[in-house]
Amino acid sequence: MLALLGAASLSAAQATFRGLGDLPGGGFYSEAWGLSGDGAVVAAASVVGGGGPFSTLDAFMDVEGSGTIASGLGPTASARAFAASGDGGLVVGVADYGSFSSLGAQAFVWPVGGAPVLIGDLPDGPTGVPRSYARGVSMDGRYVVGIGESAGGTEAWRYDSFTSTFEPLGVLPGGQYASYAYGVSADGAVVVGQSYGGPDQQAVYWDEAGIHAMGFMPTPPGYAPASSAEAASNDGSVIVGWSRSMNSLNGTEAFRWTAATGMVPLGDLAGGAFQSWAYDVSGDGSVVVGRASIAGPCGPFGCNSEGRAFIWDEAHGMRDLQQVLTDLGVDLTGWKLLEARGVSFDGRVITGSGLNPEGLGEAWVASLSPAPPACEPDVNCDGAVNGFDVQATEEAVNGDFANFCMPSADLNGDGTENGFDIETEEQRVNGAPC
């Protein structure tokens, strides 16, 4: 305990930023798609052959303390890693072998420290050639969600990596047979994505009761509605995504959804066309990240818009992440942070893609200032307050957030995660107020 009391967690250090570079081969380009809940593993891809529209990519993971690790699937296949499990133990994605290969495009699971494994597709696809994509994964890596081909058509699935079995998730009735899964709650019980309940594609979620339509935000007359759910909080109660809205005629607006509020629009950044997309949410649902639009360069035929990564919380609304980092003392000279794709459970670590000072596409990861302390003694969210919460706090202080569901392990609010936070949790478990 004395050692823990004296050692502050590195995760509570000042704001930081780093580009993730590029894998050897081909033109310089990398993109980030997802982040583990503990903020330690980025799921990404990079060009390894060719360039432009004829590029071949390889999936890679960036592991805190270990650097960039290529999957080795490219250039035989063009591979992307889309998501990492909450505990940072598993990365998932797709390897596309091309239309003339019997391997098709296949979802893969990739244990950190191991090799990627192709998992096939739903068993009753019409051609027998896999067309599957893994897009999300649960806290412990057991449940992987994605998109595949079934006898009916394109269909979302949930895959149990412990039993190596696919579960088709079905589609909304009344529209074309198609559904897509993009994200999943920490326990794998809530899956989010899109389907058709008529002529228009809309956000949906699946739970033990089946598929549920989430609808749309109000849409301007004459424009077809459209929406998508992209990610869910740890318990699945908060879902984020995008929808066409009254504020964006031919674009979209980011939303945050709960059962009580429905879709709440999150707005856009100032300048440029009104467009925003929410791509991920923190474990407790309080921090949302994505892409919005700002004013871009002007020419003889008018001005354009360009993308910018955003961060949203209830206290501040939508903010330009690049400006937030700059205000925290990070030097981003020459960088343009175009979008944020992943955020850690505690809302502090964010990953995305942008343009580096040379004007080349590059993935990045940033760490913000410490999150405010949580004032909830049930830190493992099992519905009880007992010694298991103290144990979960101790694990989180030591970097393992697998059983810890609060935004931060800095429970006493002193800016560090250490043994004093374990002591604070012990006191709360024994009845002390927050």
Tell me about this structure.
- It is a single chain.
- With 434 residues, the chain is mostly beta strands.
- The chain has 2 domains: 16-369, 6 Propeller (Neuraminidase), CATH 2.120.10; 372-434, Type 1 dockerin domain (Orthogonal Bundle).
- It has helices spanning 2-6, 321-327, 387-397, 419-429; strands spanning 16-19, 30-35, 41-49, 56-63, 67-70, 78-84, 90-96, 105-111, 117-118, 133-137, 143-149, 154-160, 165-168, 179-184, 191-196, 201-207, 210-215, 227-232, 239-245, 248-258, 262-265, 276-281, 288-299, 302-313, 317-320, 336-343, 349-355, 361-367.
- The strands form 7 sheets. The protein has a 4-stranded antiparallel β-sheet, covered by helices on one side.
- Strand 2 and strand 3 form a beta hairpin.
- The longest helix has 11 residues, at 387-397.
- The chain is globular, with a radius of gyration of 21 Å.
- It starts with a helix and ends in a 5-residue tail after the last helix.
The strand line-up of the biggest sheet is 1-28-27-26
CATH topology type of the largest domain:
Neuraminidase
What is the number of helical segments per DSSP (H or I, 4+ residues)? 4
Strand residue content: 35-45%
Q: State the domain count.
A: 2
Estimate the helix proportion, in percent.
under 10%
Radius of gyration: 21 Å
Estimate the global geometry from the Cα principal axes: globular
Content-based structural category: mainly beta
Task: Report the CATH superfamily of the largest domain.
Answer: TolB, C-terminal domain
CATH architecture level-2 label of the largest domain: 6 Propeller
- Give the N-terminus to C-terminus distance in angstroms: 21 Å
